[in-house]
Design goal:
Layout (H helix, E strand, L loop, with lengths): L15 E8 L6 E11 L2 E12 L3 H11 L5 H26 L8 E18 L2 E9 L2 H8 L3 E2 L4 H5 L9 H8 L6 E6 L2 E7 L9 E7 L2 H11 L8 H4 L5 H8 L19 H7 L5 H23 L5 E5 L6 H10 L4 E4 L11
Parallel strand pairs: 1-4, 4-6, 7-10, 10-11
Antiparallel strand pairs: 1-2, 2-3, 4-5, 7-8, 8-9
Length: 351
């Protein structure tokens, strides 16, 4: 097996079964997709064989939230670093059993880990200017537990060379969603929203990709805090409220939206503490309505400010299922044709 699986077209000259494993900033669980990949010259193809999301045990989820909020110490961080691979291994085995896929058929696992800190902007330490990012879950431990090669630590190399380390999805978007005739925006609405811009008939050097700001993260926090729900299904809660102009103006003062790309962000900025400080004394329905509108506005503002006109937008991620959010976004971008990645044979949840 080649040492560098990602860049080896030779390795992909015959179909390979690869398991992708992701836990995002929304902390909604462990997303696992098992796919068959192959490549012949520049013709890449894949087929989704199985997908499921496995919720985090509540104790694990609560500790992760505390770690991200800097309320836990190094002993808990170390504990989670090795607890997650065990959960991942159990979940992969369960998905294989549920889908009649033999574990021995999987050639490799791509594991992102759980981001608990992302600091792409440099800070000074010992006269050094350093960017950093941290994902929990030992790739070595997972490889030993499940007996399959694991590719991991995706962000560090880009960070070391002065990049943002995010988003990671553009290379997939380029290979499977680019168009010879249309400028395309691929929008992923997870906890954080990110976009990939693919000019028509583009090369990899033409790709523009960056985070736009919040996706589901603040909407989910309000849904949980005030409605005891994990998320706002179809945006039905937000529909019942009205946009609070004073709150919206405060949200628009968050400077990240106006930063020029490349840029990336996470819960370090769009966190619970900032959100609840801003929505203080706002009714719960107006709060979720305003934050939902701000989420749509921030995505659209980035598209208008930093991208050339596009013909189509292809949405994916959990936020693409929020009908109200997507309606607001379409109003902000009336000249763009909207679709979901499902329309191109790519599950918006599994992507």
């Amino acid at each position: 097996m080649p040492k560098n699986l990602i860049n080896s077209l030779e390795w992909l000259s015959e179909p390979r079964i690869v398991c992708g494993l992701m836990t995002g900033t929304s902390l909604d669980g462990i997303d696992i997709a098992i796919c068959s990949f192959s490549s012949a010259k520049d013709n890449h193809s894949f087929r989704l064989l199985a997908f499921n999301t496995f919720p985090f045990p509540s104790e694990i989820k609560n500790i992760l939230k505390d770690i991200i909020s800097r309320k836990r110490f190094i002993d808990d961080i170390s504990l989670i670093h090795f607890a997650l691979p065990k959960l991942f291994a159990q979940s992969i085995i369960q998905l294989c059993n549920d889908s009649s896929i033999k574990l021995t058929e999987i050639d490799a696992i791509g594991m992102h880990g759980q981001t608990v800190w992302h600091q792409p902007k440099q800070k000074e330490i010992a006269n050094l200017r350093i960017s950093s990012t941290s994902q929990l879950a030992s790739g070595s431990a997972l490889a030993k537990l499940i007996g399959i090669p694991v590719v991991y630590d995706f962000r560090a190399a880009d960070i070391a060379l002065g990049g943002e380390g995010a988003p990671l999805v553009p290379i997939f978007d380029y290979n499977f969603l680019k168009s010879k005739t249309e400028n395309t925006i691929c929008l992923n609405i997870g906890g954080i929203s990110n976009i990939t811009y693919l000019p028509k008939n583009c090369n990899t050097s033409d790709i523009i990709a960056f985070d736009t700001g919040p996706g589901n993260v603040w909407i989910d926090l309000i849904a949980k805090e005030f409605f005891n729900l994990d998320y706002d299904k179809n945006g039905n809660l937000a529909r019942q409220g009205k946009v609070n102009s004073a709150l919206l103006n405060k949200l628009k003062e968050i400077s990240f939206v106006q930063w020029k790309p490349p840029k990336s962000t996470g819960r370090e900025l769009f966190n619970k503490e900032l959100l609840f400080r801003l929505i203080n004394n706002i009714t719960k329905f107006d709060a979720i309505a305003t934050v939902t509108y701000f989420t749509a506005w921030s995505i659209a503002e980035n598209i208008k400010s930093f991208l050339e006109p596009a013909n189509r937008l292809i949405a994916s991620g959990g936020g693409a299922n929020n009908l109200f959010l997507m309606e607001l976004l379409k109003k902000e971008l009336p000249t763009i044709n909207f679709a979901k990645s499902d329309d191109f044979g790519i599950s918006s949840d599994a992507k």
